[in-house]
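Q: Got a minute? One more chain.
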Amino acid sequence: MPESPAVETHGLSKHYGDVHALRDVDLRAETGSVFGLLGPNGAGKTTAVRILTTLLQPDGGTARVAGFDVVKQAAQVRERIGLAGQYAAVDENLSGFENLEMVGRLYHLGPRASRERSRELLEDFQLAADGDRLVGTYSGGMRRRLDLAAALVARPPLLFLDEPTTGLDLRSRLGLWEAIEQLVAEGTTVVLTTQYLDEADRLAERIAVIDQGRVIAEGTPRELKEQIGGDRLEVQLCPGADGEAAVSALAGVADGRPELVDGLVRVPLRERSGAITAAVRRLDEAGVRIDDIALREPTLDDVFLQLTGHHVEQDDEPAER
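A: Always. Here it is, folded:
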């Protein structure tokens, strides 16, 4: 028999008064994979995670995690999951080792097993040399790694990561990505929420794109990109160049209206071959000076823009509760 999904929801809904945080959301995350929930702040991602981790009850629909109903069998769900939220939930007045040991005690691992597991995780997350330091002296990246380690003390088969790299610098983000990839290689199933397109593209095998509480698309990163067609032409205009004139000039090579944002024109192409030559000629005839021009494949940002009419970071919805 095929293995049951790690997460499965049908018609999941949640509202706060007149605000609908989730609207009839259907999700399916397979065991042994990374499933990404991609969307802007306020889209409903955190609400979904809180329901799936039994911290919040839905107003409608059903959800099963590791085969158990999140409402009727909440205790069984909690025994099988780990959770790392948007902000590191660690005690600054304890050392890294003491934080992990405390979590082990709370899981009833026993004194010896808690100490052994704590040292093992500190080593795994490159924190062994700093394990006896107070967490209040840690950098943001170190705290996030410690928070992720704490979620793994009890060796849960399913890990929920709610925007795990929020606020981290690039180096810390890369380090955390590598840690997540190692966990998955060792068999952990991960459900990841993120508003970072590059994060979803790198880590997730399947992605559900969510906006204003609704799932508006789902598939692998490649499948989502293929929905919007082929390559893009990016033209960086010189300072002071006429952007509207550039858009008009490039319309002849575009498969849809070119987009102008801060002096950068993005052009969905009808035909890749000869596109740069044709674009340069049209711009020259229109008297538009350019600084750079390049071809590139569509990104998840292109997907989100086409689906919603705005970029992921352009969100005016209230923050999630």
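A: The chain has two domains: 7-225, 230-297.
Q: Perfect, thanks.
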